[in-house]
Amino acid sequence: MPLTRREMLKTTGVVLGGLAVPGALESCLTSSTSKTSGSIKVGFVSPITGPASGFGEPDAYVIGLARDAFKSGLSIGGTNYSVEIISRDGQSTPSVGAQVANDLIQNQKVDLMLTTSTPETTNPVSDACEAANVPCISTVVPWEAWYLGRGGKVNQPSPFKWTFHYCFGVLQFFLAYTHLWPQVPTNKKVGVMWPNDADGNAIRGALGPLLKSAGYTIVDPGPYEDGTNDYTAQIQRFIREDCQIFNTFPIPPDFATFWKQAANQGYTKMVKIAQIAKTGLFPSQVTQLGALGNNLASACYWHPSWPYSSSLTGVNSKALGDGYKAKSGKQWNQQAGPSLGLFDVAAALLKASGNPKDKNAVIGALKKVKVETPVGVLDWTKSRPGVPWNVVPTPIPGGQWVKTGDKYKIDFVICEHTDDHRIPIGGHLKAY
Questions:
Q1: Which parts of the chain sit beneath pLDDT 50?
Q2: Which of 172, 251, 366, 373 fits 344 for a cystine, CB–CB 3.0-4.6 Å?
Q3: CA-CA distance, 137 to 346, in Å (whole number)?
């Protein structure tokens, strides 16, 4: 990153895209009057292995950026704290996620937990933190799957005190789909494969009715179990009912199985829009499908073209994508943005607390936090109708994986930006 930006962060406090956390200027000063205290321990749980391992691909790079930013410690209220980040693999499995979270809480004594990527990881980690009174920040799960999937109720007070979240929700999917799909003429019949899990159930209960209200006909064969091997019945129904739009929220291996069977049975030849979520988010998941991956429609919750930066590191979105490619030798990965954002929020929250070792002070400071991250400016200082106090929705513009002539074979093109007009559009949706 530019030296001037780093020096600014060290000497003048964190400036959050023009937005300063209350007390941040005072707490960031690293003058000789600061005294050294014990360390702040931050736990980080994500799926490094298992079906959702694609989400964990940029972890090492992102955590490296955060550790570098914390090298000089975190100065809060005249006290300088060293920061230790302890990373664990949730293995894409709820039981393992809960196990590693409890180890971080009980044995490592973390002061703050960070977790990301699918309810199979974030929900059990959040539940463990809620039970143990440990502040927890999570992301990259539709907020309804995180909130409702853990027992929260619509239009009722939140049952959660210690856990909070930033991520797109059903409304953001609805806005993306209803501004993306009209770019290709169809009969507006949507064949859906929504699984019997936290994501699928939240989507079925909320997105389905919204799409119907917008004039789409939903053809739903019903919930299926993760790990299903034969989708013939669903595919044949989609063919019979001429479902020209297809939508699904599966774990990655299930979509690969389904889409290959759909190709063998002729359904992919009649689909005009194949809209996928939870899988098809990363180049590695799309290229393994070969030619069947070209022109798959998806959505992105971060892209190197986004006009936002990490307040903790000073790295903008373009530099984040370029840095990951240079460090890993791989194509940019959209998970890098929200994962780095977790550390932006963590730093802002700990500073705003005035005492990072007081867990009640940390949670009490949440409503003071307004912080710029690569995925946008996250603002817990204001309420939103219909959204729990501890949730900040983020945009997920729609787009498509398009074949390229360079070494990466495909790249993601943003085709609509209804929920955030600062995000640049790169092209127009093509028929699958």
A1: 1-34
A2: 373
A3: 8
